[in-house]
Design a protein that fits this description.
heterodimer; A: 0% strand; B: 2 domains; 8 helices
Chain lengths: 103, 156
């Protein structure tokens, strides 16, 4: 899915690059500038979300003894596409700092 | 007691130079964050755009620095240990699979971690490329204070 998104973004990017027909004015706002800045904001937030996930997994890898993945904590797989995972990882780092394990 | 002046708010809501669709969107939080810049009938000035791009560039640099550091945050032994735990602990396996996107379900944590770090780096670098392109076209390409500025602004 992410590959498809990148291809789509690449298409938009190429479209925006072909817009400047007049060397005096790079592109019109509605046709070029707004497209580019929307694309920049969208890709930035997408990258942020993936970095957010990576940070969550880092907590599981670095501090496995401090992450609560016990049976009562696991509900449904969809629950972990939320802030829970990162909060869990952050809590693991705090527990690690305090020397408190989950067992 | 000082009387509350609501004229500014009224003007922002009713007389803002935005399209009819945006007059509805403006009431939805989240969507209206960038509305003033993205859907204005009057395009923003090049100075405003430069400020937006500066802000986005700084955020990109900060996030990119953080994401790059994630790659070296854990070593080989830690990744292997996490993978072993994935295959041995049923709860942990369910936990990781629930977190993964559909194409990464069933993959060990090291694969998911490396995938997310690389994708995040890729996408944020992409944002930087877009910003550089915008800088070339909308900042460096603008003849500020020169003879062509009036023509450029009229076309813009």
């Amino acid at each position: 899915m992410i590959d498809a998104c990148l291809v789509f973004a690449d298409g938009l990017f190429s479209y925006a690059c072909t817009l400047p027909s007049n060397p005096l004015a790079p592109c019109r706002w509605r046709q070029g500038g707004a497209v580019l800045i929307t694309l920049a904001i969208a890709t930035l937030f997408t990258g942020l979300s993936y970095g957010f996930y990576a940070f969550g997994i880092l907590g599981w890898i670095k501090y496995p003894d401090y992450v609560a993945y016990e049976e009562d904590y696991v509900r449904t797989p969809g629950d972990f596409l939320t802030f829970d995972s990162v909060l869990n990882a952050s809590a693991a780092m705090v527990r690690h700092a305090l020397g408190e394990k989950t067992e | 007691m000082r009387k509350r002046d609501s004229s500014t708010t009224d003007r922002l809501v009713t007389d803002a130079p935005i399209s009819k669709i945006s007059q509805v969107i403006v009431f939805f939080p989240g969507l209206n964050l960038f509305l003033g810049h993205l859907d204005s009938v009057d395009p923003p000035s090049f100075d405003d755009l430069e400020k937006i791009m500066n802000t986005l560039g700084i955020v990109c640099a900060l996030v990119l620095g953080t994401v790059f550091s994630l790659g070296g945050a854990c070593g080989y032994d830690e990744l292997v240990a996490a993978d072993d735990r994935y295959y041995e602990n049923e709860h942990f396996r369910f936990f990781v699979d629930g977190f993964a996107t559909y194409d990464m379900v069933g993959k060990p944590p090291s694969a998911i971690y490396i995938k997310y770090v690389s994708v995040s780096t890729h996408i944020i670098l992409y944002t930087l490329f877009i910003l550089i392109l915008m800088y070339i076209y909308l900042v460096a390409g603008i003849d500020q204070g020169g003879g062509m500025e009036r023509i450029q602004v009229s076309i813009w």
